């Protein structure tokens, strides 16, 4: 296949699979970018991850972009929330720090598994892999204030459906 052909083929399959079997939770979205001419860019997906019910993240619908390169699925996608997103495992740039997006990546991991993994990470962060010092400090030293900031952030990302 031409450069990126394997990646695009796998992403076309991922898109088909997502449409048939996406998480049956209101709010999950994962779709390739539509270009101005109506064509689809399979290498960039616009996603939304809903906060899990019963958590401080509930009520938020968090936008995330998944950028794939020509080596996908050998290499993990780059996943980003908006810059400044408040979370221990999200860099100020919005880049997500999650094991399955780094050293624990396997080509068999699906878009669905990545999105569900990030949803889990929201309420169950890994403080040993902190990407934001201010979040880490609040999480360790002032949990009520940390939770308050999470709930405030949820209000900034209401459902658009």
TrEMBL record:
Residues 6-159 form the UBC core domain. It holds the Pfam family UQ_con. SMART domains: UBCc (SM00212). It comes from the Eukaryota. PANTHER family: UBIQUITIN-CONJUGATING ENZYME E2. This is UBC core domain-containing protein. The lineage of its organism: Eukaryota, Viridiplantae, Streptophyta, Embryophyta, Tracheophyta.
